[in-house]
Each structure stands twice: as C-alpha cells, then as structure tokens.
Amino acid sequence: MRRIQLSDADCAIAQALDVVGDWWTLLIVRDVARGRHRFDDLQAGLGMSRKVLAERLKMLVDREVLARHAYLAHPPRHEYRLTSTGQALLPVLVALQDFGSTWVLGDGTLSATAPIDSAETHRVRALVGTVLPAMRLPLAGGAAIDPVAATPYTVIYCYPGTGTPGGAGHPPGWAAIPGAVGCSLEACTYRDRLAEFAALGATVHGISTQRSDEQAAFADAERIGFPLLSDAGLEFVAALRLPTFRAAGTDRLKRLTLVIDERRVVRGVLYPIADVAGSVSDALALVSTLAAGSGRLA
Fold this sequence. Notes:
By secondary structure, the chain is of the alpha+beta class. Helix content is 40%, strand content 17%.
C-alpha cells in the first residue's frame, strides 16, 4: 500500500521515502553496492526471508533502482546491479552511515579519524578478507581506471583532501578537525618512497572525494608520480563502507590505508592513523610482510 498522502504529492522527501523508506530496501541497495549481486548471496547476507527479498527486489527493479542482468540461461538466473538511479542513492547511504557513526555510536564530535577502541575502528579493520567489487574511478581529463592495479599489491591510501594550488585551500576550521591535517605530507611521503613500494611489487593509489581536476592541480604542483583517483560519486566508499565525515558541505574520506592483492582481496588495513608520515612506513612494512609470506621475496 502506498504511504504518500495527497498533501505529500509535491514533497520530494515523501516521494523518495515511498521508494526507499522500508528498512530492508536500503540494506539491499547497500549490499548490492558492496558487490552482492545474486539472490542467494543477498539472502544469506541479509538473513531475510526469500519471499520478502523477492518482493523488495521486484519493487526496486520496477522503480528502476536496480536492473536485472542474466548470468545463466538454463535455468534462468539473474544478477541485480545498481542503475544510475541506484547510484544516486549512494550519498544517502553514506550520510546514514556518517550519522550512525557520529551520533548513534559516537558522541557527535566532528572528526577525520576515530578512537582505536571504537565500533568504527573495529568495522574498518574487519575489512581484511573483503573483495572489492569491480569499478573504475576518474582521473583528470575524464579517463577512469581500476583502483586495483595489475601488480601483486595495491596500496590505497584514503585522505580527506589536499589544498588546491591557487585555490581557496581548505575550508575554515579545517585544522581544528582531528585527523584532517596532513594530506599533502602524506602524498609527498608516498612520492618520495615510491621506488621502495615498486621493489616489493606494490602500486600506490591515493583516493579522496575531491574532484579530479583539483587532484590534478595538486599532483602537478607537487610532482606526484602516482594516480590520485576521485571518488566524488562515493562508489568506492559505499563498496567498502568506509568511514567519512562532512566538512564544508562535502562528504570526505577519513584517513586510512588499505593493501589489496591482485585478486581484489583486502589483505591489510591501517586505521586509525595517528602519524601521517609514519603510516607510509607502516604500509611499506605491511606489504613487505605480505610479500615475504607469499614467497615473492624468496
């Protein structure tokens, strides 16, 4: 039964809630964004009845939030993928996660990091073993690349945002946000130690929610010799449920580092990061340990 009343016909919030206001609906969208595309995987992950899941999936397809794609002809089987409408819901999921982490599980403090014993820290560290879904993130000039490189390991460091040369720089109060300061130092430290990562078979990528043109301006000014990728659409954030904070009207990644192998499996996580420059050494040591354990340094 539709919940919208006649008086709500022009209210965009009420109209949107008619599509995604159900408890299970946003959780389905969350899990599809995380790479769970098949009915059985969704059912197992969510723990909901098959009947309820089938009803919600049909509704989301009918509303063009999800699209069905056949992956088996006999018997017919389908995967569910986010449409452009579904992709537009990712900021809603990120906002809900930020609200829950900050105001429900936290004390309401604006921060670009987290206490070491927090629920957020436990959730992020539990990403080890998670498979990153296939995606492409934009670089400057409109090109897009896979955030996971074709090397044994990819070090992905997530950062809140650098200043832009000749631009307005950081928003007011940036220095007062715990964990926000140090993005330029982090990038330049990775730049200076890039050869050490390459010697271990690791590629370095930086990811933030800044626009790709802002990233390009910074990379040019600081001679950053590795890709800075833009997750302004929050696809990477949503896929791994990464922690964010909101500053100057923009959702920004909290500072953390992931080590991902060539199979797209997260093999290591550094979070929270207290020492920005020291975290580069920590990432290098983590890759070295993984490479030694796999026999790649033998």
